Amino acid sequence: MRAITTALTLLAVVAAATLPAPAVPARAGTTGTAEPAVAAAVGPQPGTFTGKGFDTCTAPSQAAMDAWLAASPYRAVGVYISGGSRTCAQPNLTATWVADQTRKGWRLIPIELGYQAPCGTRTPKMSADPATARGQGRTAADSAVAAAAALGIGAGSTLYNDIEQYPTNASCRAAVLSFLSGWVERLHTRGYLAGMYSSGSSGIKDVCDAYDDTRYLRLDQIWIAWWNGVADTDGGAYCADDRYADQQRLHQYAGDVTETWGGVTMKIDRNYLDVRAGTATPAPWSVTVDNGTAGGFTAGAAWGTSAYSGQRYGADYRFATPTAASDVAWYRATLPVTGSYEVSVWYPADSGYNDRTPYLVVTTTGNRTVAVDQRAGGGRWVSLGVFTLAAGTGDKVGVSRWSAGTGYVVADAVRITRV
């Protein structure tokens, strides 16, 4: 892991001439033959820990780890367990290696280095479409969990998604935050905590700025790449002190440094951790469909497009004059099972909008109509209630023009959450 990505390929481990060459076969997905997971880490990783750690591209040999354990100030080590963007082979990283380090007192920081920001230079890139990116986040979580389990890193551990520096902008930020929401959602379902590593100026700032944004799920821990040379968990201007404040931070405070301990020299990044073990709480299944979601919204020619209100969800919203005819703007979604779902809507409020906008909810027993006053309460999620909705793909919620009220009817975004 490097804030400067090219340094990933520059790791060098120089040990005393008497150190034996590693003889353990590689984990699946790297050069060599996979070793069965015959051992397990001692407790969740990194668990509850405050102190210094380091990360390297290739997991060091056992002899190097032992030398540093005896002589260095470090007690935690970052290891790349999975991801399509890894550039280093992992001849030492096996279930036995994991169990040996944790038994001797090392804390592990498991890293997934895979999908990268769509506006960045590194590949593979996540989709620029937020809905697709969220699905990719879930896929990445499944991959990381499989790799962690094969190494004996069990449930309760935190897995960290490494998204390298990117030139953030609104659309890229939406993709990254959606991807991370999928990552959090699936890891919690699988019993793991969700962490993320990124540059303070891009990924960390985006995550911290969206801390209270209900469109996205919060991470459990953040790993701040900010090479200011200070061994603490301060995020500076990148992350306010009140965000991820409950032992939820790691700080990579120096990088590409060469150190020698116990006669063993390694090129590392320096980290300071203040984290604690916790319980992963599965996030409720939820889907958000905006009027700009590809394949998720349809409306007739009478529906205009506007970005007038700052209370809008996303880039814009749709509007139309009321009429005594059926002309519904529909939101399409795929639900996993037939069951109870809360339906919430987002709209900008304005005195010129409709005071009785009809929302149609397609339930298993027919359409239900709920009238909403769009002159008040805008710029937030407003619940229409809990309904029984059918599994599968189809039009689930609509906004009708057939209103007894006056003013424009507005269609912006809907959120469907399983309860």
Automatic annotation (TrEMBL):
The keyword Hydrolase does not apply. Keywords: Signal. Residues 287-418 form the Golvesin/Xly CBD-like domain. InterPro entries: CBD-like_Golvesin-Xly, GH, Rv2525c-like_Glyco_Hydro-like. It holds the Pfam family Golvesin_C. It comes from the Bacteria. Residues 67-272 form the Rv2525c-like glycoside hydrolase-like domain. Coiled coil: none annotated. SUPFAM superfamilies: (Trans)glycosidases (SSF51445). This is DUF1906 domain-containing protein. It comes from Micromonospora echinospora.
